[in-house]
Amino acid sequence: MWQEKVLFIVFAVIAIASALNILLQRSPLYSALSLIGTLLSLSALYLTVHAQFIAAVQIVVYAGAIMVLFIFVIMLLNVPKDQPQIEKQKGLRYLAIPFAGLMIAEMFYVLRPIRLTTLPIQPGNAEQAVGTTWSIGTALFTDYLLPFEVTSVLILMALVGAMVLARREGD
Amino acid sequence: MTNLLLEWVIKTIVILLILVTAVAYVTLMERKVMAWIQMRVGPNRVGLGKFRLWGLMQPLADGLKMIFKEDIIPLQANQWLYVLAPALSLIPALMTFIVIPYGSQITLFNHTIELHVTRMNVGLLYVLALTSVGVYGIVLAGWSSNNKYSLMGGLRSSAQMISYELALGLSIVSVLLYTGTLDLVEIVDAQGGFHGLAWNIFHYPLLILVFIIFYIASLAETNRTPFDLPEADSELVAGYHTEYSSMKFVMFQMAEYLNLITASSIATTLFFGGWNGPFVGRLPYLGPVYFTVKVLALIFMAMWIRYTVPRFRYDQLMRFGWKFLLPASIVNIIISSTAILFMR
Amino acid sequence: MVKYVPVLLILIIATGMAAVIIILSRFAKNRRPTREKLMPYECGVEPVGTARERQSVKFYLVAMAFLLFDIEAVFLVPWAVVFRGVVQSEAYRHLKYVFYGEMMVFMVVLFVGLVYVWRKGILEWNR
Residue C13: which of B16, B126, B155 has the nearest Cβ? Predict the structure, then answer.
């Protein structure tokens, strides 16, 4: 349907523009806000492939928790906006561009076999679709049980690690 | 397709108009309730021409006054963020109302109209997402005002909001155990038995505890007393909206009352049957009436609590959220899931 | 997918409303800036120091703890939605207790995390 294609293109452009804006802003707070914009457009892109649960969770966790953390840290650290950018090794710039080109070429090579003509998920077979609540609920606790339990340990590790690191200086 | 689009546009505009009027009159309701609880009368003079009208034109007068107040932007403030922050607060507050069902179906001019703007199968998660995004308006307002009190108030207010958002989300999970769906329309439709009185809170009595946790968490989420230390007038000046004047301040106030209305609407939808009630099957127009009555009752309860209970200190507030409310909601999930596992 | 277009619709309309409100106040022609009005407000005295001083690290810890428990809540949501259907259906009868037990293990691990944060005193003072 042409409407879906239009929406996809619109949100893809917004996502890429916000992502570029992250790099081009001087103040870290503006970069964080552009990142929030990127995440919101990514959520809309998830909606175009009928992964509604993932879209909602993207906003709840990524744009609503992780970015809040980022913004708190930026505000706590108070980096002055106009500090001169100190570039210690100018030669690295000339090394970075070929490496970026290499990475993009690798991405194209890996993604070439995928046919980009039709969306794999039609509204008809949405029950078996990936990314809906029912499918995630059943799959997570049957096929993917071990990664799920390991995730809980991972979260515990992150919690303990963050608390230990942050309290070492101000105890 | 264009028919659908037209229907959406009309419904959205109608809902927004009703909302803006509702916010204005909820402020009047707040002042009147505050007055009567404090044994005085409240605004009762602003009327139309010669008629007193019991002060019903007060919100209109206040709105006009606010438009004509001077719009001060502090010199050192971050201009772009300063103007963006109230919008970031207001927009998510307005966006929740498209998934809430206000009634079942009415027939108007030979069209059957469902009384909800859209029906998402992750409706409840959408509401949670908008609550999460609502934090940004406050924290950016505190930062961009370039004022110590605003920054502290903004950081504290947003830290409070995210702490209570956890208890809110986990109490919603408790309700999900019983309803089995995230779709608000389906949740309300399932509460229609027993002549419209099979509300979730009667059908599953364990949900009373969950409702209490949800309600307390939503009072803290919307920065209402007893949790309004970050914006109380005698504390950090006025917290994150110290430096705001005129319409931007109005936007923050609108966002706060809209959040209150949202929290009450979600509570009625999840716990009290939404638009269900006696005789709704025969008279579909009764649906929105029941919904409004229930939402107003919950808003009244919030105001009643505000003018009865003293404020929490900030560390008491955070301690309560993390050490009591969060474990209580986790325990509720365990109890509810055990009940479903064994008793059905 | 089509059902989500009203989200975009109300986003545009609400943004339009906010923009109209801001533009309305900008053109109300009542701007008489004086030095006192443009300074940051500090209860009537001259402001001392800048507003950009370092804040406490406790806010970072709150945000970190919130993030991790939010991830836990997000794992709980699909489990809760599917739980009743699985537990009360015939097809998954052999999985009933396993389904329940899996999530209890997950929650116990995270409860240990909460207890750790509690005992370390991170949920005290400012909080």
Answer: B16
Q: Which chains touch B (3 or more CB pairs under 8 A)?
A: A, C
Nearest residue in chain B measured CA to CA from A73: B155
A71 → closest Cβ in B1, B133, B139:
B139
Q: Are A148 and C75 in contact (CB under 8 A)?
A: yes
C-alpha B265/C-alpha B223 separation (Å) is 17
Residue B112 sits at φ, ψ, to 5 deg, of: -90, 125
**Residue B26 · residue B261 · CB < 8 Å:** yes
Chain C (64-123) residues lying within 8 Å, Cβ to Cβ, of chain B: 65-66, 69-70, 73, 76-77, 80-85, 87-88, 96-97, 100, 103-104, 107, 111, 114, 118, 123
* Fold classification of A1-79 (topology level): Four Helix Bundle (Hemerythrin (Met), subunit A) (1.20.120)
Q: Which residue of A has its CA nearest to B180?
A: A134
> What is the separation of C-alpha A92 from the centre of its chain, rounded to a whole number of angstroms?
27
Q: Nearest CA to A52 among A1, A117, A127?
A: A127
Q: Which of B166, B63, B15 is nearest to C74 (CA)?
A: B166
Q: DSSP letter at A122?
A: -
pLDDT tens digits in sequence order for chain C, 127 residues long: 677 888 888 999 999 988 988 887 777 666 666 666 666 666 656 666 665 666 778 888 889 999 999 999 999 999 998 888 888 777 777 778 888 888 899 999 989 999 998 888 888 766 5
Domain spans, chain B:
1-69, 78-343
Using DSSP, state whether B282 is helix, strand or coil: coil
pTM of the model: 0.90
Query: Among C11, C54, C64, which would you mutate to test the A interface (most chain A Cβ atoms within 10 Å of its Cβ)?
Result: C64
Among C53, C56, C77, the strongest candidate for a mutation testing the B interface, having the largest count of B CBs within 10 A, is C77
Taking only the tens place, the pLDDT of each residue in B228-277 is: 776 665 555 566 777 777 788 888 889 999 999 999 999 999 999 888 88
* Helix (H) or strand (E) segment spanning residue B231: none
Q: Chain B closest CA to C53's CA: distance in Å?
A: 8
> Does any CB of chain C come closer than 8 Å to the CB of residue A170?
yes
Give the residue extent of every domain in chain A: 1-79, 126-171
**Is the CB of C21 less than 8 angstroms away from the CB of B247?**
yes
Q: What is the ipTM of this complex?
A: 0.88
Listed by start position, the domains of chain C span 58-119
**CA distances to A2, B123, B255 from B214, in Å:** 42, 17, 20
CA dihedral B169, B318, B212, C107 (to 10 degrees): 50
First-to-last alpha carbon distance for chain A, in angstroms, is: 60
The DSSP secondary-structure symbol of B97 reads: G
